[in-house]
Amino acid sequence: xxxxxxxxxxxxxxxxxxxxxxxxxxxxxxxxxxxxxxxxxxxxxxxxxxxxxxxxxxxxxxxxxxxxxxxxxxxxxxxxxxxxxxxxxxxxxxxxxxxxxxxxxxxxxxxxxxxxxxxxxxxxxxxxxxxxxxxxxxxxxxxxxxxxxxxxxxxxxxxxxxxxxxxxxxxxxxxxxxxxxxxxxxxxxxxxxxxxxxxxxxxxxxxxxxxxxxxxxxxxxxxxxxxxxxxxxxxxxxxxxxxxxxxxxxxxxxxxxx
Length: 258
Fold this sequence. Notes:
Its cofactor is Mo-molybdopterin. Residues 2-125 form the Oxidoreductase molybdopterin-binding domain. By secondary structure, the chain is mainly β. The protein has helices at 28-35, 69-72, 125-128, and strands spanning 23-27, 44-49, 53-55, 58-60, 63-68, 78-83, 86-87, 97-99, 112-118, 132-134, 144-146, 153-158, 164-166, 169-178, 183-189, 196-197, 199-200, 209-217, 221-231, 248-254. The protein has three helices and 20 strands. The strands form six sheets. A five-stranded mixed sheet has the order 13-20-19-15-16, with no helix packed on it. The radius of gyration is 21 Å and the shape is elongated. The model has no long low-confidence stretch (mean pLDDT 92).
């Protein structure tokens, strides 16, 4: 579950908000098969949640999002009632919530009270005003797209910020990488120019993946370790300017000679 963060903050201010949990629920496609909606006209599934109020000066009686019908019919989208084997609490969106693996958490509507199949996208503020972002594939930087798929992302867990490494040689580290598609490559750099490939564990479902790195240092001083993930479609984590820009950890290398 990857939170997108505040939709009114600049993308470079995003901080990782991600959890790796096990969901139990009813597949959404099963509920749709029972209700038998008109899928010739129904292009989206709207989900309503029982929270209301004001956000950034905009009032809403309900939180409402939508899913393209193709995503809604995929086997992994759930109406979930358990998290990690326990009944879903009110704080986590219970008694039932939508869970859309591989997509940002804003699409996993909490306190679910209504599902409907519609011909168009929702006209609510959370699909028209909020949770839309500039499309990085638009060369003019104007076109926007919905906040749906999680793009390749990563975090460095070890070394930790401002760790002091004593002695030249190899620095070993590890971290986690994730995205809507499986991560097939993670590269680690000390200078931003040359990149060494890390070992990446395979993905079983939609969980994050471990990576292990080993890079060589030849001098003492300050280093900035970066990690860059690439998914199986070839999409690569950007260096700057996006919510999923590569992480940087500053470390220090000291000589082991007195």
